[in-house]
């Protein structure tokens, strides 16, 4: 175990040896010890199979994503129950797994997302996972229900030795579309996830927009630096218990190679632990790119 990994683990003093071992397993796997590059594949549930996999037809096969995460040197592969069940035995022990315990579909509209619980902590244990994953939507009218769900699930997961990864994506009637990635809102979302007991927090890369009028006054008075992405990442990491929780950033919309490199360097320079990956329609090169440039 590297000193960097030991340093990160020192921030989780309340956790049992099983949970700490799984956190270490997540950080030590792949090409970037002490960093995090996760391949999350919940798009089939969230957006439907054609929208998700038709541009890259091998993606219809759940085993493809295990292979992609391994080839890309990712730290972990995260997916809903069905995808993990379809490959967990074949790839047992080859890559740490994160079971997403809640999911939404796009067949019903509305401004306030409220995901369904689609798997359990015991499912994660049965499949040999290192962690559970859970999405919360701060600013949704249903946010308090999600907060209560993850509190109970996190308690059970930690008791059984699993790590907890929270996707914290502000969305809903409480904020504007631009506000979903506003620096004050993303930093707030990271803080909420940490307060709910997350070991690892995943948020979107923040923009320089400030959504809340009350927050804007503070940002201006205290002259909080947010001009560059690296500065904004640094502020989000600071908001996650002053860097004592692991913060990773989503890949967002599709980008060309130069933009991917630029974004990942900014995450690195701002003290972020890593980034999620996604396959490009061609052959998964996007995952390999983001893995290789997060050094």
Overview of this protein structure:
- It is a single chain.
- It is globular, with a radius of gyration of 18 Å.
- By secondary structure, it is α/β, with parallel strands linked by helices.
- Helix 5 packs parallel to helix 13 and helix 11 (229-239) packs across helix 12 (257-269).
- It is built from 13 helices and ten strands.
- An eight-stranded parallel β-barrel has the order 1-2-3-6-7-8-9-10, surrounded by six helices.
- The protein has one domain (3-292): Aldolase class I (TIM Barrel).
Task: Quickly count the domains.
Answer: 1
Mean residue pLDDT: 91
Decide which structural class fits the backbone.
Answer: alpha/beta
How are the strands of the largest sheet arranged? 1-2-3-6-7-8-9-10
Write down how many β-strands occur, each being a DSSP E stretch of 2 or more residues: 10
Instruction: Name the CATH architecture.
Output: Alpha-Beta Barrel
- In percent, how much strand structure appears in the residues? 5-15%
Oligomeric state of the chains in view: single chain
């Amino acid at each position: 175990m590297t000193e960097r990994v030991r340093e990160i683990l020192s921030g989780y003093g309340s956790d049992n040896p099983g949970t700490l071992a799984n956190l270490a397993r997540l950080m030590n796997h792949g090409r970037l010890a002490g960093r995090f590059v996760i391949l999350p594949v919940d798009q089939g549930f969230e957006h439907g199979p054609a929208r998700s996999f038709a541009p890259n037809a091998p993606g219809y096969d759940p085993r493809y994503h295990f292979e992609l995460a391994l080839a890309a040197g990712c730290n972990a592969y995260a997916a809903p129950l069905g995808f993990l069940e379809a490959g967990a035995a074949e790839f047992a022990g080859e890559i740490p797994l994160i079971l997403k315990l809640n999911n939404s579909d796009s067949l019903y509209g509305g401004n306030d997302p409220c995901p369904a619980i689609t798997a359990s902590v015991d499912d994660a244990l049965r499949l040999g996972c290192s962690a559970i994953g859970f999405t919360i939507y701060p600013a949704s009218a249903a946010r308090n229900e999600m907060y209560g769900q993850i509190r109970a699930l996190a308690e059970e997961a930690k008791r059984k030795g699993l790590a907890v990864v929270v996707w914290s994506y502000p969305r809903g009637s409480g904020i504007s579309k631009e506000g979903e990635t506003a620096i004050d809102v993303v930093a707030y979302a990271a803080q909420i996830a940490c307060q709910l007991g997350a070991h690892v927090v995943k948020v979107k890369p923040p923009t320089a927009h400030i959504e809340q009028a009350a927050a804007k006054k503070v940002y201006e008075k205290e002259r909080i630096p947010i001009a560059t992405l690296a500065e904004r990442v640094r502020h989000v990491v600071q908001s996650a218990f002053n860097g004592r929780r692991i913060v990773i950033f989503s890949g967002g919309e599709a980008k060309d190679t130069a933009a991917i490199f630029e974004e990942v360097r900014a995450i690195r320079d701002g003290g972020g632990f890593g980034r999620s990956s996604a396959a490009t329609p061609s052959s998964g090169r996007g995952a390999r790119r983001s893995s290789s440039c997060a050094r």
